[in-house]
Amino acid sequence: MAKRMGIIGGGQLGRMLALSGYPLGLQFRILDGAEEAPAGHVSPLVLGPLDHAETLERFAEGLDCATFEFENVPLPAIEQLSKHVPVYPGLKALEKSQDRVVEKEFFQSLLISTAPFASVQSLEDLQQAARTIGLPAILKTRRFGYDGKGQMRLNSALEVANGWETLGSQPLILEGLVPFDRELSQVSVRSTKGEIRHYPLVENFHRNGILHKTIAPAPGIGPNHPLEKQSRQAMEKVMEALDYVGVLAIEWFQMGESLVANEMAPRVHNTGHWTMDGAKTSQFENHVRAVLGWPLGLTDACHFTVMLNLIGSHRPAEDWLANPGVRLHLYGKSPRNGRKLGHVNVLGNTALEALTRSDSLLDWLSE
After folding, report:
1. DSSP 3-state assignment of 111?
2. Looking at residue 279, what DSSP letter applies?
3. Do both 29 and 142 map to the same domain?
4. Residue 339 forms part of a structural domain
5. β-sheet bridge partners, residue 206
6. What three-state secondary structure class fits 360?
7. Tens digit of pLDDT per residue, the chain (367 long)?
8. What single string gives the DSSP state of each residue in 287-316?
9. Do 212 and 168 share a domain, yes or no?
């Protein structure tokens, strides 16, 4: 009988997880509160609130295991669901990643460097933190917030009070700015059997707080580069500490020959979308394999790849596909300002070829 996996969250990540598992003979069920959830286009959809016991029981019936596609799943929902079916990556990973202060304290407990930070509960806390950490700095909500939401840059003491007025209705964190050379990230995967594999470090570029472009592998960083070794060691520390199962992503700031952790995501990740066409096994397939305890696939790059996010709107599919080396992935979403609608992976036999091809397409992303 085919294995049946449940996915909490019906966005594009859940959709791509299901699509990666069907060739392996798997079946999927999606839990989401929105009838138009993109993953519901490809898998049966259970509609209902994530924190409703009856909905969770209906969702869990007949499943062999479950996973989630976003890190803000209510913890009680995972506790309740775990009574019926194994859920991975699990509670520990969610607890550490849902609160930015807790996450940074966790990194530091493992001797992984972070930006200077302070927990902020009041305007007085913020003023003291600004004096201690220095300005400019970034004020963020401790929980929720993604793609640049729930944060603002404070450049001077005059902006501190405005920052508190704008965001201060909830627990906050002030993070010092890191004078980084570039933004990197790594996606790794660990199975229920403890097997670990790492994808290459990649370089990322953002626009308006949203990931715009990923270059894989990161230029100038080969398999034996010190930064690659440093990142892999840190990933393994985190995974072992959390008894982690599934795909994990950590975003890094590169400062010379050192890495500073920005944040982690206990799920498949936008900076790993290049693996769908540029690696021997995609992050989505490896996440499914890991959760089931199956052998993990090879994570080596088989192409030089530039991943471009399609945000807000995009040209017709045939326009993209007329370009050599382009692989198109659309999520089945209606256009909306700031919304991720899909991505393209631009492939090349050399880094220069992939970059040249992607540069010729960049004007399309702003039309």
Report:
1. coil
2. B
3. no
4. yes
5. 211
6. coil
7. 789 999 999 999 999 999 999 999 999 999 999 999 999 999 999 999 998 999 999 999 999 999 999 999 999 999 999 999 999 999 999 999 999 999 999 999 999 999 999 999 999 999 999 999 999 999 999 998 766 678 999 999 889 999 999 998 899 999 999 999 999 999 999 999 999 999 999 999 999 889 999 999 999 999 999 999 999 999 999 999 999 999 999 999 999 999 999 999 999 999 999 999 999 999 999 999 999 999 999 999 999 999 999 999 999 999 999 999 999 999 999 999 999 999 999 999 999 999 999 999 988 886 6
8. HHHHHHTPPPPP--BSSEEEEEEEES----
9. no
- The C-alpha atoms of residue 212 and residue 310 are separated, in whole angstroms, by 8
Smallest CA-to-CA distance from 268 within 59, 70, 56, 60 is with 70
Between helix 12-21 and helix 283-292 the angle, nearest 10°, is: 70
CB of 286 closer than 8 Å to CB of 297:
yes
The answer on 199 and 136 residing in a single domain is no
CB 185 within 8 A of CB 249: yes
- Cis upstream peptide for 266 (omega within 30°): no
By the 8 A CB rule, do 74 and 56 touch?
no
Find the domain containing 165 and state its range: 116-176
Cis peptide before 136 (omega within 30 of 0): yes
Hey, what are 163's tokens?
């920052």
For residue 5 the two structure tokens come to 């996996």
